[in-house]
Amino acid sequence: MTARRGLLTGIGSIALAVGAWGTGAYRATMAAAEARIARRSSVIDTSAGPLEYAVAGSGPPLLMIHGTGGGFDQGLLFAHGLVEAGFRIVAPSRFGYLRSSFPDDASPAHQADVLSELLDHLGLERVAVAGGSAGALIAAEFALRHPDRCAQLILIVPAANLTGRDPVEFSALQRMAVERVLNSDAWFRAFATLAPETLLNTLLATDPALLDRVSPDERRRADLIREGLMPISRRTDGLRNDGYWAGAPTQTAFEDITTPTLILSCADDLFGTADTARLLAARIPGARLVIYPDGGHIWLGHDANLTQDIREFITGTSRP
Question: Taken in order 129, 135, 136, 141, is the CA torsion positive or negative?
């Protein structure tokens, strides 16, 4: 509740300041955001319409499925350490994000099937599959629906309603405030600029106090994740869709997953994914569970640990 009150307070402060905010700064920011994602991805036609993706690195293939507010760019950022560790990362933009379509059926199951079409296009028969936050639902569905193509399954800070109660339920006033921010690039940019710690605490479910305890590289990673939410207008359909599927009681038969599975979370994730991770580990046969003591929803301060844990899980070897 404190985080959500902080969101309302932050938006209230923005309402007083946004009118005086120069349009020049806003236009420059938008141009920079568009340039950041331009010319870095490709688009293919699928049975559900256009699907955007990017590929980085070389080595064993890993499909990195981004979380809420993401796109291929967030997927590449999440997998940056894995690229350096010698993996070839395939990072799609899911339904409703950036240049990917938003079909009538935007369920996790349908998204998983369309990602199988992406693997066909790339000539990849079998890959490791990782999903972060709401992307974990799609990763799990991929393992269920295409087990012959999923070598390993990695669920990172998984967002799912396993108990019948939405772990991130908002009041009507809070929903209205969030809608105001998410429906306008100008409002969102003002929020990100004038209340960056509130954004980290609420939309990214991470305690801003961690910023003072992590390395400069990790602080920069947090900045890049926040910056990567822009332009928000090209991610809104995906955000709303993720909110629905992550908040609704899950339809995924996790207990039927046969793929070797690794689940990672942080004990202080304000979205409560540590509890979700424990429940998933009890449902998925043979799943391995790793919960870091802190780091929030973006595992701040533990990116190197997460990279190593995933690398060791996939390769079956430990670093010397």
Answer: negative
Number of domains making up the chain: 1
H-helix or E-strand spanning residue 92: strand 88-92
- Between 2-17 and 172-182, two packed helices, what is the crossing angle to 10 degrees? 50
Q: Which contacts qualify for 144-149: CB closer than 8 Å, 24 or more apart?
A: 144/112, 144/252, 144/253, 144/256, 144/257, 145/109, 145/112, 145/113, 145/116, 146/112, 146/113, 146/116, 147/258, 147/259, 149/116, 149/119, 149/125
Determine the length of the chain.
320
| CA angle in degrees (0–180, nearest 5) for 13-221-2 | 40
Provide the pLDDT for residue 7. 47
Domain CATH number, residue 132 = 3.40.50.1820
Q: Is residue 252 part of a domain?
A: yes
Q: Is the pLDDT of residue 136 over 70?
A: yes
Residue 105, domain member (yes or no): yes
Per-residue pLDDT at 120: 98
Distance CA 130, CA 144 (A): 14
Domain that holds residue 302: 40-168+205-315
Whether residue 235 contacts residue 97, with contact meaning beta carbons closer than 8 Å, is answered with yes
**Residue 243 lies inside a defined structural domain of this protein:** yes
Over residues 155-172, the mean pLDDT reads 85
- Could you tell me the end-to-end alpha-carbon distance of the chain, in angstroms, rounded to an integer? 44
**pLDDT reported for residue 31:** 45
Asked if residue 44 is part of any domain, the answer here is yes
pLDDT digits (tens, 9 = 90+) for 180-232: 777 788 888 888 888 899 889 888 999 999 999 999 999 999 999 998 998 89
Nearest Cα residue to 150 out of 62, 67, 59: 62
